[in-house]
Amino acid sequence: MWKQVLLAVAGLAMLFYLGGLAWLYLRQEKLLFQPETLAADHVFALGDDVHELQVTVPGARLSALHLRLPAPRGVVFFLHGNGGNLANWFVNVDSYRKANFDLFMIDYRGYGKSTGRIESEAQLRADVRAAYDHIAPRYRGLKMVIYGRSLGSGLAAGLAVDVQPALTMLVSPYISMKALVAAYYPFVPGVLLRYPLRTDVDLPRISGPVLLIHGERDALIPAQHSTALLPLARRGRQSLIPGAAHNDLQDFETYREVVQAALAGA
Fold first, then answer.
1. What DSSP line would sit under 216-261, residue for residue?
2. Which of 58, 31, 41, 33 is nearest to 116 (CA)?
3. How far is CA 219 from the centre of its chain?
4. How far is residue 257's CA from residue 17's CA, in Å, rounded to a whole number?
5. Domains held by the chain: number
6. Cα 162 to Cα 104, 115, 139, distances in angstroms
7. 179 and 50 share a domain?
8. Residue 184 has what pLDDT?
9. Cα-flanking dihedrals φ and ψ of residue 262, to 5°?
10. Which of 203, 197, 139 is nearest to 169 (CA)?
11. Which end of the chain is more exposed for a tag (fewer CB within 10 A), N or C?
12. Residues 21 and 42 in one domain
């Protein structure tokens, strides 16, 4: 009898486990993306040289902000992390003005004022490329810099493979989303992940310089991810920011100096 009870309990546990895996497979966007919406009439008060626009993609419109200077050396195409929206990501604008670089940033589907919802990695990458193609003609002959922060670092690496910019900056990057999920959810088979985001595969295919920036105290995506990625880059360089964690990098003067120096040398 006890054997039958144990078998029944094991069967029930397996049923719950498989059900949980099925939920994770179908609803993993809930875990990976944490958008915050903004009212359609929200006003970004960032100065007269910051312009709000929309990029039309299949089935959605992406909200974007664009710092446009009179005679910039180039543009930083910035892909932000998995939380918040442009209201809290479009920061340190004066640093870009000082470096004489325009700054262009989108909100992914469902973030801020952007419509639609994220449904696949292919869709997400296509949206990023559409936004890049929207502004790239404006900067022919100037310096193109691809910048990705946290979630955006994997997207930035993939875009850099396609467009081969003057400089790629990956800030708080991960080896792959698969590796990151394995560290937090070791019970989840990697095959179920629909957003593998393989930075480690893309990085060796970037021919230009790559700067990896990481906070030394980052507990969410440990700095070991940057250290592991560094030898994969053809022309890689790493900068670890003392005292910085994951969400406060932009508050450190050392970080701002590293970014400005990288732009000056682009």
1. TT-SSS-THHHHHHGGGSTTEEEEEETT--SS-GGG-HHHHHHHHH
2. 58
3. 17
4. 48
5. 2
6. 18, 26, 17
7. yes
8. 80
9. -65, -40
10. 203
11. N
12. no
Q: What is the pLDDT at residue 1?
A: 59
In the structure encoding, which two tokens stand for residue 71, read together?
A: 């005679």
Helices (H), 28-90: 29-32, 86-89
The DSSP line for 127-181 is HHHHHHHHHGGGGTTSEEEEEEETHHHHHHHHHHHHH--SEEEEES--S-HHHHH
Q: Going from the first residue of the chain to its last (266 residues), give the mean pLDDT of each consecutive group of 10, the final group possibly shorter.
A: 53 47 64 93 93 97 98 98 96 94 98 97 98 97 98 98 98 94 77 91 98 97 97 98 96 95 92
**What's the CATH code of the domain at 240?**
3.40.50.1820
For residue 19, the model assigns a pLDDT of: 44
Q: How far apart are the first and last CA of the chain?
A: 73
* 3-state secondary structure at position 70: coil
Residue 11's pLDDT is what?
A: 52
Instruction: Find the Cα–Cα–Cα–Cα dihedral 196, 263, 211, 166, rounded to 10°.
Output: 70
Residues 122 and 224 in one domain: yes
d(C-alpha 73, C-alpha 93), whole Å: 15
Q: Judge if 19 and 59 occupy the same domain.
A: no
Residues in the chain: 266
**Domain extent for 47:** 36-264
Same domain as 109, residue 3 = no
221 with 181, same domain?
A: yes
Residues 122 and 18 occupy one common structural domain: no
